[in-house]
Amino acid sequence: MTPLRPTRRLLSLPTRALSSPIHHHPSTSRPSLTHLIVRLPTATAPQLTTTIRAASTSSEDKYDPPTGNLFNVPPGETYKKEGWEDVWVWGFWGSLIVLGVGGWVVRGDTSIQTWALEEARRRLEREGILEEPATVEAAKES
Description:
The chain is an all-alpha fold. It has helices spanning 8-11, 15-19, 34-39, 45-56, 83-105, 112-127, 133-141.
């Protein structure tokens, strides 16, 4: 284990924080974070690389070795489906079809003829040539 070396943060602390292992803030009874800074060792690059290197040299294999077969099925054998695959496929495509048909049914009328008819009606109402639909309905009822 390497000896503890002071960091710049430790050198900038007041001397009373370094003199006691746990420094209590005057207004609270909880210890401040300075005791953690004093006691924590600094990680150096060689320690970090040896830790990573030691973790990656485990003797057990984490993955199956490649066999060169598509979906790990040897040539001449057929793929056996798992139980969830049919449910997923039918659910995915079924919901896609239902949402597509539902969206097609509730879509708005976006044809140019409908827009032109509404725009012409608005302009004629603005110029006073055509009465508003609410006025026409009220005249028919009375």
